[in-house]
Each structure stands twice: as C-alpha cells, then as structure tokens.
Amino acid sequence: MEYRRLGASGLNVPVLSFGTGTFGGTGPLFGAWGNTDAREARRLIDICLEAGLNLFDTADVYSDGASESVLGEAVKGRRDTVLISTKTTLPMGDGPNDAGSSRARLIRAVEASLKRLGTDYIDLLQLHAFDAATPVEEVLSTLDDLVRAGKLRYTGVSNFSGWQVMKSLAAADRNGWQRYVAHQVYYSLVGRDYEWELMPLGLDQGVGALVWSPLGWGRLTGKVRRGEKLPAGSRLHDTASFGPPVADELLYRVVDALDEIAAETGKSVPQIAINWLTRRPSVASVIIGARNEEQLRQNLGAVGWSLSAEQIARLDAASLVDAPYPYFPYRRQEAFARLNPPAV
C-alpha cells in the first residue's frame, strides 16, 4: 500500500481508505448500502490492515451514530494501529442546536463521537458541510481548542466550495489557529467538477483530497452499460436521488472506455476507475466501500499497478466535459492557459 502526506500536514495516510457507511446501516440510504455488524466489520478491518489500509472514515450522521459505534467496537484493542476519520455538522436531531458548527454543537458532537467510537481522540475531524450561520472564527477557534485539548489530531472539511475553504484558511492564518489539511470531496470519472477550482486550491494551500464515491455513486461498478436495463439488485434503484446526477451520454462514454481498458489490462471496471483517481493531483486517499469480503478484496486490487499514459489519456478524453464560466477560458484558450496552466 502506498502512503501519502495528507495535505501540508505530517500525517501519512494510505492511498486507499475504507468508508464505513455500511456499518450498522439503517434508513432509506444507509440501509440500502448495507448493514454490517461488529463481527463482520472486524473481519473487513482485518483484511484492510493486512493490505496496509489503516484509515477508516465514518460520520455521526451515518445511521444516526450506528456506524461510529460499530467501527469503535470493531477496532477495540487495536486503536493505535488505525486512523479514524469522522465528520459532523449535518443534523442529528430536530432541536435548534442539533445541527451546524457552532461552538456548543461542535463540542457536544465531538464528545458524542468519542463515546461512540470508544476512544479519547479522533485522528481527523471534518465538517460535513459549511454552516453559513456560524462565523468561521467561532468554528476555527473551537476546533483549535479541541486540537490543543488532545481530542482531535487534525481537522478538515467536506463538500465546501472554494470560497468557503479559502475564507476559513485565511481566518486560521490570521489568528494562528489550526488549518484544515483535508477536504473530503466527490470526484470520479463521471464527476470531475472538483478539478475546476477545488483541486488548484488544494494544491496551492496544502489541502489534500479524500475522495468519496469514486465509482460515481455506484454507476461505475461494471454493471451499468449502454443499452442495458439497470440490474434488479442495483442500489441505484433506491439511492440515485441522494447522489450527484450523471448525464447518460457521459456515463456510457466513460463506461465504454473503461470496458476497452478492462479487456486490455485484465482489471475490473471499478479497479480501473479507482486507479485513475489515485493518479490525480492533490488526491491523498480514495475512500472505498464494501458490503462483504469479496467486494473489499476487489476494490483493494485497484492499487499496486498502473495504467499506461495512453490509457489514462483515453479516460481523460472520455470523461472531459466543458467547464462553466469563469473556468472554461483557462481550458479552451491558449492565452488564458499560458497564465494559469491546468493542474491536470
């Protein structure tokens, strides 16, 4: 397993990490993903550790805390061998302070996550969404206090826009507070919007990407193909509305290219899609998921080999879409590109 520095921090993380949204799964979204109990979770974590994957990602909102609880039980007795990443900010109840990133909410949320995880520190806490109602100074000073208290090691964000990340980093620099070192983002061969602004920002500011849904919300599993109906067992029947939309033309163009390269390499479609992501600038780790041992071993097979430059170029071409203003001149026009060469 390859390890990379997480942004500008000194923390080394594996290029593949494991998302635990299937742990304790309940409800219309997480229940459709899976319902892994602590016994099976321990087995999956055993396999991950054998492969050198030691970073496990969860969130308080995953199945109303059940994912954190199952993860905590599964790593009991080996806490020092794993890295735990969790997230907070999304609503955990109907009360006025049950959502957001206020000082009161963050302190309470961290204490609750620590209890569910059965640990006294979190390696990486990420804000699951930007809280427009709370001043960034309040958010960052609270996170800084929690780091200094030893309850958090590092902090990051998820699903922020470029200006939201930059406003936060500027406030941290101004006041000498801990800077965000990670941004958990959606990025895939059928969703490359991350490249327009967030990738250059991450490279410039030392914010590493942790990629969620690398298979385009389940569309790049190799089971969705041009001219064929969605398989009866696909979770997309129940969960497509929760994830980012993908135009059929783009999806099938990418799947055609993946099928061709799968035939050339002997690798599976998901393995190729994930391997492509591991080669992208600013990406520190790609979060894989699995409902069972077979899926996990398949996804772990996405690393330890490389696509050729020509194969990468074909995937780049198949997945490229026009960027919106103000980004498209820097892609299309030589004069703009000369001043600001693309990150990829």
Describe this structure in words.
This protein has 344 residues and is of the alpha/beta class. It has one domain (3-339): NADP-dependent oxidoreductase domain (TIM Barrel, Alpha-Beta Barrel). The chain is 41% helix and 14% strand. It contains 14 helices and ten strands. Strands 3-4-5-6-7-8-9-10 form an eight-stranded parallel beta barrel, surrounded by five helices. Strands 1-2 form a two-stranded antiparallel sheet. Helix 2 runs parallel beside helix 11 (293-300), helix 3 (66-74) crosses helix 4 (103-117) and helix 9 (248-265) runs antiparallel to helix 12 (309-319). The longest helix has 18 residues, at 248-265. The radius of gyration is 20 Å and the shape is globular.
Name the descriptors.
eight-stranded parallel barrel, 344 residues, 14 helices, TIM Barrel, globular
SSE layout:
Layout: E1 3-5, E2 12-14, E3 16-19, H1 27-33, H2 38-50, E4 55-57, H3 66-74, E5 83-88, H4 103-117, E6 122-127, H5 136-148, E7 152-158, H6 162-175, E8 182-186, H7 198-205, E9 208-212, H8 236-239, H9 248-265, H10 269-278, E10 283-288, H11 293-300, H12 309-319, H13 328-332, H14 334-339
